[in-house]
Fold these 3 entries.
Entry 1:
Amino acid sequence: MFGAVQMEGTEMTYNVGGVDRAVRILLGIVLVVLGLVHVVTGGWAIAAYIVGVIAFVSGLIRFCPAWALFGVNTCPMKPAQQK
């Protein structure tokens, strides 16, 4: 349960580790709140919402598609242990 998510016959491995996950979730919350309370406005607010939501969601699901493309993995578990 703690290494991979089974989704309709395919398996998604995690590539976001603990510290990275916490930073992404915190950064996502901060960016969205900055936009909501109008600390940033206009195009910057839209960018804050988009980046904030992407950071938050990738932290929650512990998977970053961009990092998968580049082969980056901050998850401490080896792929064999993720199953």
Entry 2:
Amino acid sequence: MTLHRDNNITTGKIYKEVIDKERRGDYLGKTVQVVPHITDAIQAWVERVAEVPVTPGFGASSAQVYDAAFPNGSWENTFFAQYRTFFFVLRRISA
């Protein structure tokens, strides 16, 4: 199994991606908000990484493990809790 830097998602990486998109004008001058912009960036990241094989010679993975660790009550990282909703959506789609 070969993991790459994109297999590790952090708050800083997400914010940088969203800020870069805002500076390029991808949001067409709209106000950037946690919901939907940050949560959509997390979802897009997970979907993109899921398509990259972690074992040479094999296709995309059929299972993934996510661990969103943040202190209870820490509002700075609560948008990662949104991934749980996304996880259940994926689960329903693949079932």
Entry 3:
Amino acid sequence: MSNKLVDLTGQRFGRLVVLKREKNHVYPGGQQHVMWLVRCDCGVEFIVRGVSLKNGFTKSCGCLREEVARRKAKAGIRGGKANAES
């Protein structure tokens, strides 16, 4: 496995486009994470760990989660199942 950094600039992950690399985040124990500045399709910019982009954990600024929750609420779905009392 290679430790070579892959430039993610310009790549899309879900609703996010990578704008540029940021300074590494260093945890107290010395572990480092490569950080990237991203822009969501809704316009919000924020910094995220590269591993979170690559493994699919981060797909938006949070707008996707809100949209899915609204859609489920409108359909009467709770906990992944349709509400029988609707």
